[in-house]
Write a structure and sequence with these properties.
Low-confidence stretches: 1-10, 12-36, 363-370
Strand content: over 45%
Shape: globular
Largest sheet: 5 strands, antiparallel
């Protein structure tokens, strides 16, 4: 019989190191972090739509949504939620982004002077600043998106019909209070923009565009390089409607998800182009990346919400937000190792906004490798 001069302990240590080097560490999904069971945030009695969530560096949680023709807000500090408050009497398409400290930025669209304009406001830790008309033009301005740069500048995007066809506009503010004039992005026609700063500092932008009534929506992308927007590049081929793009970035990766036909797609930015990672059946996808590199991908099948997460390997499907009357309109954000989730859920009478937290990030090896 062959005799080895290695001890069993040394053999196990070697095997463990080999597995780690091959990237086969396994991840456990540890479930909800802050709330044992999700509870509605929005008042009952009227449909709530289009929720958005942001978390400050001090871990204050902010949620906004549409309801009763206006925009509503609730926020949580030290586990205690504020009462729901209507902060914009008439508005839609609210979106949030976290700034430094306790600062939160809000953008929305509303009718002003006979057409839709895009407005912005800033939360200073206790109150919202007066709304600023950022678009301020003769066209229809809608579907805003916000992203904050690593240096703290606030970037606001939206779709605007001022040039004669829906075009993506871009404005930048150093503090979210004063907004210089916005500019259209050359050849970026469409709506529903989404933007993110990649780990290398590049500003990535995606949106949807339909070239004509007979054409199908396609997802387009561009990057800001040396203060110049690069020529838009189509990501989808137009064989099926592609809508609702969402971008996210985290340690070493930038990801884009969207709805295409009866399914959803997930792509990663690799070596200067987008590479498809995975497809699922569903709609209305959302995505978040934690600070330690976990990916959380969620979507709706109409009746409930589903999700997968990934570190090195994909998890099994998880199910949440179950409703016989339908669930959807998910928004996600991440802070530390936690994913903060908001969505709408129909209770049979109206849709309400719900909130929950999922904690990700603990890895393990089976006990016989330890």
């Amino acid at each position: 019989m062959y005799a080895s001069n290695r001890t069993p302990c040394r053999d196990l240590r070697t095997l463990r190191l080999l597995l780690l080097a091959m990237g086969l560490g396994l991840a456990l999904f540890l479930g909800s972090g802050a709330e044992a069971s999700p509870a509605p945030l929005s008042p009952a009695g009227a449909d709530a739509r289009r929720p958005s969530v942001a978390v400050s560096t001090g871990v204050d949680i902010h949620v906004v949504w549409e309801q009763s023709g206006g925009i509503w807000h609730r926020w949580q500090r030290d586990g205690v939620w504020s009462d729901p408050q209507q902060i914009v009497p008439e508005g839609e398409d609210p979106v949030l982004a976290a700034g430094p400290g306790d600062i939160i930025y809000l953008a929305w669209s509303q009718v002003f002077g006979g057409n839709f304009e895009v407005f912005a406001s800033r939360w200073d830790g206790s109150t919202w600043s007066p709304g600023q008309n950022v678009s301020s033009n003769g066209g229809g301005s809608a579907t805003p998106a916000l992203v904050v740069s690593p240096g703290g500048d606030v970037h606001l995007f939206w779709s605007d019909t001022t040039p004669g066809t829906a075009t993506i506009y871009h404005a930048v503010s150093s503090d979210g209070l004063a907004w210089p004039s916005a500019t259209p992005i050359s050849a970026a026609q469409g709506l529903n923009p989404t933007a993110v700063f990649a780990p290398d500092g590049t500003l990535q932008l995606a949106w949807q565009h339909r070239a004509g009534f007979a054409a199908k929506n396609r997802i387009w992308t561009s990057t800001l390089q040396q203060s110049v927007w690069q020529a838009p590049v189509p990501l989808t081929d137009g064989s099926a409607h592609a809508i609702s793009p969402r971008l996210a970035s985290g340690p070493g990766q930038t990801l884009l998800t969207w709805q295409e036909g009866d399914g959803i797609r997930l792509a990663a930015w690799q070596d200067g182009s987008w590479q498809i990672l995975r497809s699922e059946t569903g709609r209305q996808p959302a995505i978040a990346l934690t600070d330690n590199g976990f990916l959380y991908w969620a979507w709706s099948d109409g009746k409930e919400l589903l999700a997968r997460h990934r570190f090195h390997l994909w998890s099994q499907l998880s199910h949440w937000g179950q409703s016989a009357f339908g669930s959807g309109e998910t928004d996600l954000t991440a802070r530390g190792r936690q994913v903060y989730k908001v969505w709408t859920q129909n209770n049979g009478q109206n849709r309400q906004v719900y909130f929950d937290i999922t904690a990700l990030g603990n890895t393990y090896l089976p006990s016989f490798f330890k």
